[in-house]
Design a protein that fits this description.
2 copies of one chain form a homodimer.
Chain A: H1 14-22, E1 35-36, E2 41-42, H2 51-58, E3 61-62, H3 65-75, H4 81-84, E4 88-92, H5 94-102, E5 107-113, H6 122-138, E6 142-146, H7 148-154, H8 159-174, E7 183-187, H9 188-191, H10 196-207, H11 211-218, H12 226-230, H13 232-236, E8 255-261, H14 265-274, E9 284-288, H15 316-326, H16 335-341, H17 349-357, H18 361-373, H19 378-401, H20 405-411
Parallel strand pairs in A: 5-6, 5-8, 6-7, 8-9
Antiparallel strand pairs in A: 1-2, 3-4, 4-9
Chain lengths: 421, 421
């Protein structure tokens, strides 16, 4: 994972931006391919990555209305706004998961985060918010991998710092409201050393993937360290229930569903390729779009740049200032022009953020129309976002304050989870 | 490691032999380089590998008479026959280990075996016999790594079989007489999953070694699996005492001494290169020559070919038949010729084996002289070897019979060892 929960952090990579400017590309998508892998996401469109093209390129399937309706039918719950609005837009084998679920054959969820710093921003919450919803509506267990080993391998950080970030990030994750009886959170650095079964699955994957393959999938080169080269097996292993004998009470064939940002798909394409060869079911996937930086859908959101996003530690005042000052606007330069021509919500970050966080569909649609028609001004739109974010972040901070070290220990202790398989 | 205790199994590789025959090399060393790496040992000399050249090529140091005398002085014990006879012939930093030992700064021993089958032969015992002697004379702790993960990665074997072989091989190792209070034996598949500290050191090494480096050191290619590519870090980690916090009671700076066959040196050259960069002392090394196959010093000894060596399960009758039938002789074709011209002990496998296993220096020297002069016939020489091997193997079998599952468990449980550091 990158500096996000399976890739939510990074909308564009500086190096790639340079490459784009060298190639003198146009600022609107002119058929040029977006770059999407676990470490780089780059596009030159202000609307962000072209997700329909990505589905074709990755060979995944679109989450269409039919599938959303089916999830509603099988779960008996109104689909989450991320499904209703195409934020989770792509999948692999979700229909098969639902087929089995309807026949009383359940599944488990697996998601994760690469803990490269103590700071998490709202974008990092996307997969966790959605995963919690899936856990609730399907009543299923969940494992959350904190890849502190990966962050050590990729970043200029000590093992101790990466491990500390993992424990700090766990608190923010727990604050999302996961059920402790159905959720296991683990640090790779800890769990590898406390579960022989996990290491056995890592070695099994490592035997069935060549350097040629990871070079093709991840773009590794000969000058990469051998830790990076073998790491994909470590992100693969949690997709097999036999990696967690305590958690799943010895069940080795439980189907796995992985909600993650689409940039993590390479890991799981590899996992799905290996799975049948080592006797395990292929994990299914639900892919999300990327969360945009305040500066726009083609700029880089960085945990080290406090102004690139709303952080989970921001005060109401910081939120207000950041949105007003930094959120890229799709509005016009003057009020007169705006009233006359209207704003463009497709490139407006305040509107994009509302798409992620405002629950009411009708209200959101009205905002879209009013903004497009010019009735709603940029300042008014930003005010709505501020009033959505402030209570949300305050509530998160309250929840996090209530996460004790004891609770973290509980979530991170291997133990049987509650489930009905 | 190959199918031996750090490489003792494999004197020549079939593929390399083919290469030699294609290149139409002469059967005596004509300046051609021997091939020596953890998976291939190849020479075209009946005398075996040219070890003096290997020392120059590997950049290690010769164990000369001065060092042997010093080991005698520091340990207060007569040097082991493997030292007296140049079987352990090369080293790295052994003088530094002795300097520190004289100043009351002690060290620990690390050796290992790749458990690719249940069958072990006499050659496999060489490093263990020598390591036990070192443990006894220096009164120091010892860790023994069973690389069942490596065997799974390299061979067409299941994880379960490799792990089972590790436990079976542990019995033969324990039968060598190691002190349970000073010896920890571990399977990688088990220990990786029961020690976060071990995994942490593996990841540290993996961060500091590139694919380019392992390609250069081990000859890996792009079509090798990522498990092989990252494995060297797993053989490196036991050279750092912090990988064993229970064993060494948290001591992170204990110097390590590794007795092994010279073909394992590439692993530890890499380890020594990485050590200072991750804050650990470089391990010191003692290198042994290879144990020859019955068919001669340039043929392959294989656990799957029962006639290529004396196995630890052979009966006295099997030993007699194998030596008489298969041991390559340096004697002449007829008794008359032999009496007249004498035999050549340098290419005679029976004599080579006696060099490894006969304790009495004077007796061995007399045999050498009598064989060279023609007084001693091949049949008589072989009889001496048979009479040396039969009681040795019988005693080993008795010792092994007394190794209970309980004892195996004791040796393989992480626990504080007795030592005075």
């Amino acid at each position: 994972t990158t500096n996000g929960p399976r890739g939510q952090s990074c909308v564009i990579n500086i190096k790639c931006l340079n490459a784009i400017s060298i190639n003198d590309r146009q600022s609107e998508n002119g058929g040029e391919e977006d770059t999407v892998d676990p470490w780089n996401v780059a596009t030159n469109s202000a609307k962000g990555v072209d997700y329909d093209k990505l589905i074709v390129r990755f060979g995944s399937s679109k989450i269409d209305q039919e599938l959303v309706d089916r999830i509603e039918k099988v779960s008996g719950q109104k689909p989450h706004r991320f499904l209703r609005r195409g934020i989770f837009f792509s999948h692999r084998d979700m229909n098969q998961v639902l087929d089995a679920y309807e026949k009383q054959k359940s599944f488990y969820l697996y998601t994760g985060r690469g803990p490269s710093s103590q700071a998490m921003h709202v974008g990092h919450l996307i997969p966790f918010v959605f995963t919690k919803w899936l856990q609730d509506v399907f009543d299923i267990p969940l494992v959350i991998q904190l890849t502190d080993d990966e962050k050590y391998l990729w970043k200029d950080l000590s093992l101790e710092d990466c491990h500390r970030f993992a424990e700090e990030n766990a608190k923010d994750i727990i604050a999302c409201g996961f059920d402790v009886n159905k959720t296991f959170i683990f640090s790779d650095l800890d769990y590898m050393g406390s579960s022989p079964e996990f290491y056995r699955n890592v070695v099994k994957v490592q035997k069935h993937v060549t350097f040629n393959q990871v070079k093709g999938i991840f773009g590794f080169s000969d000058s990469d360290c051998i830790g990076k080269i073998s790491f994909p097996a470590i992100q693969a292993a949690p997709a097999f229930s036999s990696s967690f004998p305590q958690i799943f009470k010895g069940r080795k064939d439980v189907q796995c569903l992985i909600p993650c940002a689409i940039d993590q798909d390479p890991y799981f394409r590899m996992t799905r390729d290996v799975a049948p060869r080592i006797g395990y079911p292929k994990p299914a996937l639900l892919h999300s779009t990327f969360f945009p930086a305040l500066q726009g859908a083609q700029t880089k959101m960085s945990a080290s740049d406090a102004n690139s996003s709303i952080f989970l530690t921001d005060t109401p005042k910081q939120i207000k200032n950041k949105v007003n000052k930094h959120a890229f606007s799709g509005g016009k330069d003057t009020i007169e022009e705006h009233r006359e021509q209207g704003g463009n919500p497709d490139i407006d970050v305040a509107f994009m953020y509302l798409t992620f966080f405002m629950e009411d569909d009708e209200q959101l649609e009205k905002i879209r129309q009013d903004y497009t028609s010019g009735i709603l001004l940029t300042g008014e739109l930003k005010k709505m976002l501020i009033e959505t974010l402030q209570p949300m972040i305050t509530a998160h901070q309250e929840n996090r304050k209530n996460v004790t070290d004891e609770m973290v220990k509980q979530f991170m202790t291997p133990r049987p989870l509650n489930f009905n398989f």
